[in-house]
Structures are given as C-alpha cells and as structure tokens.
Amino acid sequence: MANIEKRINSDGSTSYRVKIRLKGQTPESASFSRLTDAREWAKKTEAEMKAGRHFGISKRHTLAELLDRYEKSALPKLKSAETVKARLDWWRNIHGKNLLSDLTPDVIAKARDKLKDTPKQRGGGTRSAADVNRTLAALSSACSFAVKELGWLERNPMERVTKGSENKGRVRFLSDDELPAFLKACRESENQHLYLAVVLALTTGGRQSEVMGLRWPQIDLKRRTAMLGDTKNGDARALPLSGEAVALLQERAKVRSLEDDRLFPAKSGSKSPYIDLRAAFASALETAKITDFHWHDLRHTAASYLAMAGTSPLEIAKVLGHRTMAMVARYSHLSPGRVVELGDLLAERMGVA
User: CA–CA separation, 296 vs 276, rounded Å?
Assistant: First the structure.
C-alpha cells in the first residue's frame, strides 16, 4: 500500500515522500518535487513489486553518489565542513563503489573495527574512541540525509551500530601555587601579546579561537564586554571583560593599528588569522615549572575557579557558552566547600543547625 506525505524542506520548498509497504517485500520510499510524479512512481513501483520486477531504490545508488549529494547540499552549512569532508572521504575510499543496499550494520561495524586499527595520519599512533565515533557520525549524517531528503534509504543503518566508549575528558587547571607563577612568567615574556591573551583567556573562559580572533569592533570597554557572533556552537554570546584585562585593553587601544582591527594580528604572509603564541606559551610554562598544561586548560581553569567560588552550573554554562549541563558537570566535584555551605543552610532552615 502506497502512502504519500507532503513535506516542507529546510529551504522552504515542498516535496512529496512516497512510502510503499507490501507484505513479503522490502519497504521502499522516494521523494519528489511534484505530486503527480510521486503518484506515478508509487503506481509503477507498487505494480513492479507485486510482479517481482522491482529491485529497490537503494540498489540503484552507490555510497559515493550519496556522499556527492550530501556534500553538495548539506556540507557547506557546517562549520567543520573540512573535517567532516575528510571523514566522509575515508568511507568513500573503502565503500564508495558499494550499493546503499549493501551498507548493512555488519558492514559498517567491520569498517569501524578496521578504522580503530588504522594509524592516525598526523603523528601516528592508535585512534581514540572519540575519533572513530566522529567518523561514524559523519556517515550517519549522510545516511539520515538519504532517508529524510532523498528517500534512497528506508532506515539509517547506523542506528544499529554500536559506538565506542569515550573518555570523560580531563580537567587540568592551574593550582593556587601555579597560577601566580605562570602569570608572572607571562608578564615577563619577551612576547608583547602573551600576557594580554592569557589574562583574557583566564577571565573570560573563552576558547582560544574566540579570544585570539577578537577584533576591536567587537569590544565595548564602557560596557566591559566582547561580543562573539560566530561561536563553536553557533550561538552569539558576550565575553566579560574584567579586572586587569580592561586596563590592558585600554592601553593597547592607544597604540592599535588603524589598518588592521585584529587584537592579535598574525605576521605578514601567515595563513593563520592570529599570531602564533605557542613558543612563548611553552616558554612561560617552562619558566613557571608547570607541566602537562595546554592552552585549552586556561578555559578549564576559568571554569574550575568559578565552580570553586560557588557559581551555579547554569551561570558557568552561560559564561563558557556550553549548551548542555553535561559539559559543566565535570567541574561540580571542584566545589566541596560550596556543598558544605548549602548543607549548613539546609540545616538552619530545618531548625537542626
């Protein structure tokens, strides 16, 4: 029996999704821009299925064809398009010539296991569960596109493929002893940009790309905010400018370039959008005798100190730009003092203090 469903696509256009289910036959579906085409296909396909002459739409398209359509239509909208493209190319290389009907959960699972044993292109070594899962997620997105937009698949085969268990992620932050030592090393660095960049990272909790990519039009010294319009999760948010960061920005504003509105402009000829501070950062860590610390850990430090100050998870999420509480939960164990304070308040309220 054929069922035709009218749909409004993401671009505002109308399409018609046909689903045919016959007892003893594999369900078939397809999408059309015109209702008449949908009805004609439904009538013809249903007749062929009853006569045993229908081979299924998933047997007429290869994975490579799907990836081509997906990359052209959906990939340009993604911020991580280049990374996703590389992951899709991996699937194209091993199964691109295969028909979509052959892309079973078992086939995908075997490819997943093969990927686990494939050394990373950069630096070598084994791949992490997170890296494998992202490659699976890239294929899953393409298959969802085949189901929802093209009608080439009845169901996403990735729904029945198990993903690897990922690490919860480390939380490395500067201790009470490390923080002043590191700030002193940054302040005395020969690099004139390092101290301001580190202070901004510590006091705003911003990601490296957000802090280093700041431009003067984004900064409002009167309101003490830096507006971010294009963040990692796609939401606009304001970075708070506090303490010494304000004074440092005021001083830098006096000598800023009128030809370049970037706070941390890269050297001439560099492909990077901002200056490279890796060498200066590493030197400061060595001077302060701090080990196992990365730039992103400055963001962890900001979050950790907020948690230890008793800031609510919702407020921390607001400052850092996290969409889910799960991202903030990793810092909850850092504020035992706050838990005791809340326990005291509860006891007092109940009259058992």
Answer: 15
The verdict on 86 and 130 lying in the same domain is yes
8 is in which domain, residue-wise?
Answer: 2-54
Q: What tokens does 21 get?
A: 């289910």
CA dihedral angle for residue 131, residue 132, residue 137, residue 140, rounded to 10 degrees: 160
Q: What is the CATH number of the domain that holds 240?
A: 1.10.443.10
* H/E stretch holding 32: strand 28-32
Q: Measure the CA–CA gap between 251 and 225, rounded to whole angstroms.
A: 16
Residue 297 resides in a domain:
yes
- Classify residue 227: in a domain, yes or no: yes
Give a yes or no: residue 171 inside a domain: no
332 plus 236 within the same structural domain:
yes
Amino acid at 74: A
Other Cβ atoms within 10 Å of 129 Cβ, number: 13
Does residue 172 form part of some domain? Answer: no
User: Mean pLDDT for each consecutive 10-residue tract of the chain (353 residues)?
Assistant: 84 85 74 88 79 60 92 83 90 92 90 86 70 93 90 86 80 90 95 94 90 92 84 69 90 86 86 90 96 92 85 82 74 66 70 64
Q: What is the DSSP letter of 146?
A: I
Quick one: 144 and 182 in the same domain? no
Q: 31, 54, 77: which is the final residue of a domain?
A: 54
Token output for 87: 């992951």
Q: Do residues 236 and 324 make contact, with C-beta atoms less than 8 angstroms apart?
A: no
DSSP code for 154:
S
Q: Which of 191, 213, 196 is closest to 274 using CA atoms?
A: 213
Strand order in the sheet with 2-8: 2-8, 14-20, 28-32
Chain centre distance of CA 318: 17
Taking CA atoms, 256 is separated from 32, 247, 259, 263, in Å, by 56, 14, 9, 8
C-alpha span between 16 and 142 (Å, rounded): 20
